[in-house]
Amino acid sequence: MVKIARIAALCRRQQNPAALRRIWSAAELARAGQSGLDSLAAAASLAAAFAAREAAAKALGTGLGREGVSLADFAVDHEPSGRPYLRVQGAAKAHMNRLGLTAVELSLSHDGDYALASVIMWGEGKRPEPLSPAQSE
Q: What is the CB neighbour count within 10 angstroms for residue 88?
């Protein structure tokens, strides 16, 4: 769960588009930018995409920063129907492969002040070890 106002403030402060691309993909920024990156709709979209990254890293059992998993390893995209899906690459994809995880489901929502995402990963491999409370922060 991500506070939308936090992402809106980040977008307002950040004048360098390259810095935003360290967090979001070019496609995510373009999709959000259709309504103007300083709009509430853009902030809600980017907040949901950020929440998806956090949820995916936790579903993977690493959190962000361990096993080389970073924000850039994930990107939210949409099928023509509008259904969201998560693209996984880099260290996160390598870790999924090591664990035998082959599928990812993503659900996004935003309402009021918050955006949230739920990610489920599964496959034939072993279950990732759960994060301790200290690791998930």
A: 22
